[in-house]
Structures are given as structure tokens and as C-alpha cells.
Amino acid sequence: MGLEVYFKFILSFALILIAARLGGEFAERYLKQPRVLGQLVAGVIISPFALGGLIFGSDPIILNFATISGQFVQTGEAISDFNIMEIISQIAVVILLFVAGVETDVRSFVRSGITGGAVAIGGVILPFLFGYLITWALYPVIGMTGFLFMGAVLTTTSIGVTAKILMDMGRLQTREGTTILVGAVVDDIIGIVILSVVVSMARTGVLDVGHALQVGAIGIVVWFALLIAGVRFNKYISRIFLNPFKRSGTMPIVAIIIGLLIAYLVTLIGLHPVIGAYVAGLMFAATREREEILHGIRPIMLFLAPFFFCYLGMQVDMRLSSIAAIITVVLIILATLGKVIGCYIPARFVGRLSRNSSMIVGLGMVPRGEVGLIIAGAGLLAVGEQFRELFAVAVLVSIATTLITPAMLKPFFRRALAESSLPEK
Amino acid sequence: MGLEVYFKFILSFALILIAARLGGEFAERYLKQPRVLGQLVAGVIISPFALGGLIFGSDPIILNFATISGQFVQTGEAISDFNIMEIISQIAVVILLFVAGVETDVRSFVRSGITGGAVAIGGVILPFLFGYLITWALYPVIGMTGFLFMGAVLTTTSIGVTAKILMDMGRLQTREGTTILVGAVVDDIIGIVILSVVVSMARTGVLDVGHALQVGAIGIVVWFALLIAGVRFNKYISRIFLNPFKRSGTMPIVAIIIGLLIAYLVTLIGLHPVIGAYVAGLMFAATREREEILHGIRPIMLFLAPFFFCYLGMQVDMRLSSIAAIITVVLIILATLGKVIGCYIPARFVGRLSRNSSMIVGLGMVPRGEVGLIIAGAGLLAVGEQFRELFAVAVLVSIATTLITPAMLKPFFRRALAESSLPEK
User: Fold this and answer.
1) Domain co-membership, B69 together with B174
2) How many CB atoms lie within 10 A of CB B204?
3) Cβ atoms B154, B335 nearer than 8 A
4) Residue B65 domain boundaries
């Protein structure tokens, strides 16, 4: 009947959600860690390279990526290595970032703009150098494009992971929280610029800095335009987009659809959809309907976000060659140090945050998460099969930096809580 | 970079949701019709055979079905005519039916059991004969398997469409509402039995009634077992599955995941996932946590259900040959009459419902919706390319019966409302 294939997707979807939920609960209740951590580790455990492969090894869909090569029937357009489950994962991360945007305290976000920008730039330089140099020293065979890609992977900061950690810890609306998010967003724009340089270099063999700067400039302008639109014209947003749907109770759904649409639109100028989703969320964060919107969209986020993180974990193949394992360990350490040092300094001296808060900002910028993975995937496409092992390294660094961040943040959050209960706030 | 493909899915998802929302609002506000109707028509308008094809004709994903043929990379397993967007549609309809299940008044559901069963059987006989005979008379070239398939398509009742219409009209928890839903569920079990007879006939050339009866018997037993489990052991369900997740606020999400899992599990015994999802919902309908669960899952349903209906509408190709158009019109009329007559009689004389309520039950059983489409799709797979035109007919009949039902139901609902405001209730 051919319908079984569709049903298997329902099963795989359900199994991943179950693993994510159990992992999240376990981490939170017994290990006193953020749920994201448990969801990621649950993903690693049920991955096709681990338990999923052992149990459902012969099935391409169940606890697998449903990767397909072939062609679209209607147009004959070829498609290769297309990961079907990734579609749900993309929708999930867009919704997660949209909710994070709506939950953000926009006024303090705007206040954090300069500090966030400085933090972002500070967090780019060291990690890029570390990524480039370590790959050059230990994996010279891959060539300059490969070095550049590993550098680019390390520059990123995952808004999704970071936002979820801050949300779970109830620290999203603090000054550190918004600084980190601004930094993460700007970092992604920088990451995209580097990515477009590297991709065009891999294709043509020459550096096209002009084109890269153009992408970056357009990205920043559009991004600020949307932010300002939200902060200044939120009354019009309410009147045009939200009020007509109040009576039917579907207003929050309309907001989330607009978020999905903007997430796509920013991809047309070379940005990643999560950036658009986040800014779309910020647009609604200043409206009077904010609480009502959050009330209607949080359940959707609670339903889908664990899927994203668990699916991220599922992509990790723990079987590495010894040299790749060494590079992985070295890069995890340097990726962490690079961000902590590079972001602590601007947070402390540009943003004039306390020592403890600056450490929170530095550590909060450590997770590479999905943006690191995206660049790694682009590297695999651009460099080809010989990049496969470094791709695994990049994925592991992205995951590992995400895994270690919550535990490192905890003591500093505790101290921040103690500080904030002092009279001077 | 290859990422554009994923982003296009986000766009298509967003565009379908926008069309569904606008269509739904328009139908409700200006035409005073249920939202489902507007969502379906919006789908017909943006379908790849209409506006979507005109605007995005060259793209296989945007407002298209992303139908793919090729193979799974990991296993080499071939896959053909696989409709990628259908995955989201399947998840949406499962969630819709789960919510419908939780919203059902279980006690009146059990009370409606005998009437519902009688209504279902009554609604099968005439439509099956009409479907078989009309196809035999007007499209003899297709052969007996084809006649049987068209008969099978007409026997079904769409739980999804019917539940949504009843929900939108606020009539889900009435005696008529539960009778219709019980009837629809039993109808689907009967439909699956007929389907398995026809499929095995198409494959082997002989009738295997024994196998078909076996599928049907297992289906009914499992279905009743789950229903009884929910009604009798709801305290244990609460204690084992729900209580552990109360503290983290994710209890409704756990319930919906269990719904997805049961939806898949029933497919292993040959039932369609929507039946499992609905029964899983019934399991939770008797728990004390019901209201809390509904509160957390309704936003997810509000978000995804319109996608399902709009996507259903998108599958309609309005360009038909004249003979196919004639068959379509005849079958729409007979499909409606067959259900109304076949269900009115048992509702009136077995269920002892009023004349008005019996008409509501008869009309409520008319939509063929997704189950009709499923059988039509199975027919296309079993009979082959020559069934393509009858497939379009079957889809149009499924859609048309869905489209006309709300308008036909309205006057009877109005009269029921007037009746129920009389002193004797």
C-alpha cells in the first residue's frame, strides 16, 4: 500500500520526542542540569550510529535521517543527500527562536546593542585563528579551504541552544542574557560573511571580499530595520496583523506564521532563518499582545523544540580516527577558551559588566550548536568527501561546547543570583 | 550550499498556513461557514493545479507536493512518488484526532456505541453499491478491482473533517456528535476491511475474505480494549504517564506523544493512524487531568490542523474529462444520498433519535475526507496508471462531500439548538 512509509515517520517523530522528553526530565530532575543537555545526550544515545542503528539498523526512517537521493517527480530536478527529518527540525528551531524573540525584553535588548556587538567581534577573532591553525598543523592534507571552514565553524554562536539554556535557567531577560543574544545574533551575521567568503573561494579559487562584505552589510541593515520597526511601530503591527484575528482566538498562530515567513525571507539575503525568526519575535515583543501571544505559542514550542535538540544529538558519530579524536579534544578546549577570553574582555571593558556577569557572557557564547553544524555541512558540500572526518570533528565540537556550557554557567548564575539579591540590585 | 531546499519547505509550510488562516477567517466571518470549509477551498485555490502552479510552477516544493522518487542513501531502499509534505499533513491529522478524542465526552460515547455501530453499518451498504455500480456502468474499462475501489472510497467517513466541523460548530459533545464519531470510527474499520479485501484481490486475483475478516476482528478488539482501558483504568493512566510530568509542566506534551505512538501502533494491525490517535485521546478524556491536557495541546492543534485541510484541498485537480466530470457529479449526489438515507434509518429507529437529530447524524456521516483519499491513493498504487482519472474523481468526491456538509448541517443544528432550549431539554 506504500502508506507504511508515512506511518514510519510518525513513529520516528514520536520516538525522538519520547527520548527527548525522558532525557530532558532526567537531566533536570536527577542531574539538576538544563533540559537541553538531556535532550542532546538522549539524541546521541538513540542516534543511528548508536542504539537506533542497533535496533532499527535496517530501516532508513525509524531513528534514522531518512536521507534520500533521487529527483522531484514533477520537475525532474535532482536532489541528493536530502535529509527528510531535517525539515521538521528546521521548523522546530525557527519556532524556538521566534518564541525566544517574543520573550526578550526589547528595551534592554536595544540597551545591550553596543556591548553585544563588541562581544560578538571579540568572540570571533580567537576561535577563528584557533580553528584555522589547529587544522593546518594537525590535518594539513585538507588544504586552505578546509582550514578556513574549521575556523568559520568555531566563530559561530548558537542562538537556539543559548536561548534555550537561558530560558530554562530563567535568565533570558537579564542584562547578561540579552548581551549574549545580541552577541549570538551578530556572530551569526559575521559567521555568514565568513561562510560566503569561504564558499566562493572554494568554488572559484580566489577570495571575493567585496561580495562577502555586501552580504554582511545587507544582513545587518535588514536586521536592524526589522528590529527598529518592531520597537517603533509596534502599534501598527498590532493593528494590521494581530487585531483582525483576536476575535477567533487565532492571533498567536498568526504571529507564529509571520515568524515562519520572515524566517524564510531573510534567507533570500543570505542569512540563516533562525536570525529572521528571532527578529520577528522581537517585533512582537514590544506589542501589547505579547503575553497573549506567548500563552498561545509556548505549547507549540514545548512540543517541537525538544525534537530539534534531540535530532542534533542524533547526528553525532562517536567513532573517530585517533588524529581526529585529538583534534576534537584540542578544538573543544580552544573553542571554549577562545570565546570566554574573547567575549569576557569586551563585556567587562566595553559593557562595564561585573566580573561575574562578564564570565556569564563569555561562557554563554561558547555553544556552537546548530550554526556550527550548518557551516560544517556547507563545508562538506564545498570541499567534498575528504572533509567527512573533519565534518564529524566539527559536529562533535558543536555538540561538546553545547554540552559543557550549562554546567559551567551554573556556579556563575548562582553567584549572580546572590549578587542581585543585594540592596544595590 | 544546498540549504535552500530546506528553507523552501519552511516557506511552503508558512504559505499554506497563511492561506488556510485567511480562508478559514473569511469563511467564518463573511460566509458564516465553518473554518474547515474555507481552509479546504483556500487549498484548492493555491494548489499546484491552480494558483500555486501559475506562480511557483517551476518549483517542486513551494506550494507543491515535493513528490520525490529515488532511494534512501543509507540502505539503498527504493522509494517512489513519495510526497514529502504529506508527512507534516499526517502528523497534523493525528494531532487533530487526538484532540478530538480528548474533547469527547466518553460516557456519552459509550452510550452511543450501539447506535453508532448501527449507523456505520447502515452508511456502508448503499454508498458501496452506488460506487461500484456507477463505475461499472460509466467506466467499464477499469475492471472489477477498480469498481471495488470506488465502492470502498464511498463507504468511508472522515473522522478528521467531521470532528473539526462538529468542534467548530460547538456540537462535538452532543448525542448526535458522539453518534457520528462512533459511526465514523466503525466506518473506518469497515473501510479498512474492504480495502484489504480489494488490495489482496488486486494482487492475487482472488478474494481472500478470511484474511480481511481477521484484520477487521483484530482492529475492533484492539480498539475496544483501548477504549475500555481508558474508561476503566484512567486512574492508572494518570499515575503512570501523567503525574511524573506534572511538575515540569510538560504533561500535555507527554499525552500528545503517547497519542502519536498509539497512532503508529494501530497501523501494525492494519488500521489507519487517525483511529489510534482518536482512541488514545479517548483514553485521556476520562482522566482528571483532561482540562489541563486540553489547555496545553489545543494551541498545537490550532497551529497544525489548518495545514491538513488546506493540503487536502491542494490535491484537487479541477481539469477533468467530460465522462469523469459526469461520474463525479453523479457520485457526489449518490454518495450524499447513500449516507443520509443509510444513516438516518438506524439513527432514527435503533438510536431513537429525533427526526432532526437523525438528519444531523446522516449528514454528519457524509464527508469522505482523508480516509476516502487514503483508499483512493491505495487504489492508484494497486490498479496503476489507468486509475489516475478515477483517482481524481475519488478525490473530488471526497472533497465535495466535505465542502457541502457544513452548509447542509447548519439549518438542522439551528433547529437542534431551538429544540434543546425547550424545557424538556
Assistant:
1) no
2) 9
3) yes
4) 4-83
Residues of B in contact with A5 (CB under 8 A): 79, 82
Q: What is the pLDDT of residues A11-50, one digit of tens each?
A: 999 999 999 999 999 988 888 777 877 888 899 899 888 8
Give the other-Cβ count within 10 Å of A366's Cβ: 28
Q: How many domains does chain B have?
A: 2
Going A204 to A206 to A210 to A214, the CA torsion angle's sign is positive
Cα of A195 to nearest chain B Cα, Å: 10
Q: Quick check: is A68 in a domain?
A: no
End position of a domain, from candidates B62, B83, B104:
B83
User: What is the predicted pLDDT for the residue at B203?
Assistant: 67
Return the residue in B4, B7, B380 with the most chain A beta carbons within 10 A, the one to mutate for interface testing.
B7
Nearest one of A189, A231, A107, A183 to A353, comparing CA atoms: A183
Count, residues in chain A: 425
ipTM, two decimals: 0.83
Distance (Å, whole) CA A367 – CA A390: 18
Q: Note which residues in 219-278 of chain A have CB less than 8 A from chain B.
A: 244-245, 248-250, 252-254, 256-257, 260-261, 263-264, 267, 273
d(C-alpha A343, C-alpha A115), whole Å: 10
Name every residue whose Cβ is closer than 8 Å to that of residue B67 and which is 6 or more positions away in sequence. A72, A73, A74, B60, B81, B82, B83, B84
Q: Look at the alpha carbons of A378, A382, A384, A387 in this order and tell me if their dihedral is positive or negative.
A: negative
pLDDT in tens, A225-263: 877 877 788 888 888 888 888 877 789 999 999 999 999
Residues B184 and B272 in one domain: yes
Give me A14's grid cell.
Answer: 514520536
pLDDT surpassing 90 at residue B258: yes
Instruction: Tell whether the model's pLDDT for residue A208 goes beyond 80.
Output: no
